[in-house]
Specification:
It is built from 9 helices and no strands. Helix 2 packs across helix 3 (about 35-45), helix 5 packs across helix 6 (about 85-95) and helix 7 crosses helix 9 (about 135-150). It is elongated. The chain has helices spanning about 10-20, 25-35, 35-45, 60-70, 75-80, 85-95, 110-120, 125-130, 135-150. The protein has 3 domains: about 10-45; about 60-95; about 110-150. It is mainly α and about 160 residues long. Helix content is about 60%, strand content about 0%. The relative contact order is 0.06.
Length: about 160
């Protein structure tokens, strides 16, 4: 059974000052007072302390995310509306909007040239990936694509015999 919290008058004063302020999240107040968020809301209710309801999204903002979220992504909408990416994502999910396509980092010609050059020197994919800011898997896949383009074969042959 949970231990009953005995609230001190000093904690009640902090709660009375911070709880009505929308600038403070309930979880922040709970951390400050070293109690759960449920204890904060229950104590505030017992003391008759209320909060202003969170402002609803304006119709223009909702229309904006309906038009742009799926195509341009959550971050684009968040930046345009002055909200967090998570807030936009959650609103899109609540509205049942389709998820945006994952963003794909394109390979510039310079990175392709470096990849081919480094692989010709037998530098490991992992090292190349770190230098280019990519994953090892993406680096290996891009190398395969480049080899295919250069040789015109679906599965380019290795220039050396594999070790057995």
């Amino acid at each position: 059974m949970a231990k009953h919290k005995v609230w001190r008058s000093q904690e009640d004063e902090v709660l009375a000052r911070l709880y009505p302020d929308p600038g403070f999240k309930i979880v922040e107040i709970a951390k400050l007072l070293k109690v759960s968020r449920h204890q904060v809301t229950n104590r505030a209710a017992k003391l008759g302390i209320t909060r202003e309801p969170v402002e609803a999204w304006p119709a223009e903002d909702l229309e904006f995310i309906r038009r742009h979220a799926a195509e341009k992504g959550y971050q684009y909408c968040a930046d345009a509306l002055g909200k967090s990416k998570l807030a936009v994502r959650n609103k899109c999910l609540k509205l049942g909007l389709p998820k945006p396509a994952p963003s794909i980092k394109r390979w510039p010609d310079q990175d392709n040239e470096l990849l081919l050059s480094w692989r010709a020197q037998n530098i490991p994919y992992r090292t190349i990936a770190k230098k280019l800011g990519r994953t090892t898997q993406a680096t290996r896949a891009q190398h395969q694509v480049l080899r295919k383009r250069l040789t015109g074969r679906k599965y380019p042959r290795l220039t050396h015999a594999p070790k057995v």
